[in-house]
Each structure stands twice: as C-alpha cells, then as structure tokens.
Give the backbone structure.
Amino acid sequence: MNRIFQRLDPRARILTIVAVIAIVASTPPAVLRPFAAYAALAILLVLTSRASGFYLTLRCLAASPFLLLAAGLLALERGAPAGASVLCKGYLAALLLAMLTATTPLSELLWALREMRAPHVLNIILGMMYRYTNLLGEEYARMERARNCRTVRPLGWNRISIYGHQFGNLILRSWDRADRVHAAMLSRGFTGAWPAIAQRRFTARDAAFIVLTAALFLAPRLFVPR
C-alpha cells in the first residue's frame, strides 16, 4: 500500500493533490465538521506514499507562522470559526503539497507540468529557483566560514549590522555567480527546456486513483451536516 502513490504517473500525482486541495478549499467558511473526515482521508493518502513523517512535519511547521497569522487576522474580523476553517485548510494543503514534493523529484514535476501544457515561463522559473536556492546556500556557507575565521570576539550588539552587510554581500556575490552559471548552461546547449525523464504513460489506473480520491474527499464536503 505504501507505494501506490509512487507508481502513479507524475501528472496523476499533481492532479490528485490539486483536486483534493480544491475540494477542501471550497468548503464554506466557518464550516468545521468536514475537516475531521478530511484529516483522516489525508492521513490515509499519505500512507499510500513513502513520504517521511519527519519531513512532512517540518514542512507544516515552516508554514505555521503564515497560517497562524492569516487565521488570527480572519478570526478577529469574522470570528473564531472562520479563522479555524482557514487554519485547517492551510495545514491540509501544506501537508499534501509536502507529500507531493517528498515523493516526486523536481525533474518529474517539471516534466509533468510541461506535458500538462503549463506556461513555459513557470516551468523555467521553478527549475531556476530550485537550482539557485542551492547556490545561495553555498554562498552563505562560504561567507559564514570566512566571517568566523576573521572574528575573534563575540558579535554582541553589532550582530544585526553585520548580518545586514552579510546579506547584501550575499545578493551581490550570488548575482555574479548566477551569471557565470547561466553562461555555463548556455555553453552546454541549454535551450530553456530541462532534460526530459523517461516517457511515462497515463493509464486507466492513474485516472481511477484520481477519481476515487476526489470522490472520497467530496463525500464529506457534500454530505456531512454543517
């Protein structure tokens, strides 16, 4: 059971997650009863994959500040039930998207988006963001090591100023390195399309999984009393 999701076509994985999130997001504001069923079904869906519980927890925690802020502001404006509804929707969406990224390599996601006729610019931006995030991390690690080697006293009250200058230098150095990386990509024949993975087929099993999952999530959306 824990490999069913992995065996799906990447397009089927994306469509499944998008369908589930759309159904959950369409739940009327301040309606909370369906979320118990949503949560149980989401856990069951996670169990069909090999996603790490630790990874999923970290991703949900990373989204917590934004979700709590949005829920708190809405609760002040429209009441606690509306805020709780937004919080539940946000955590379910974060959990499912984390499961998708944990079980599907970026190359497969980009290929699936390209096959589904997603905007080419979006495909390029996602690929570049993923690759340049690693570049930023490498540059920051180098700057941190250099600063530690040159610092013999605790930073003290100058910490904020030093980190500000370090962040500015990080942007400038990353910009220069990004230009060099881009020139290297062009010299190696990059034409704006990432290398395709081995061709996959969208089968009846993929369609059945999407329909069944959507139907299971749609049932509490339609039939659970408000």
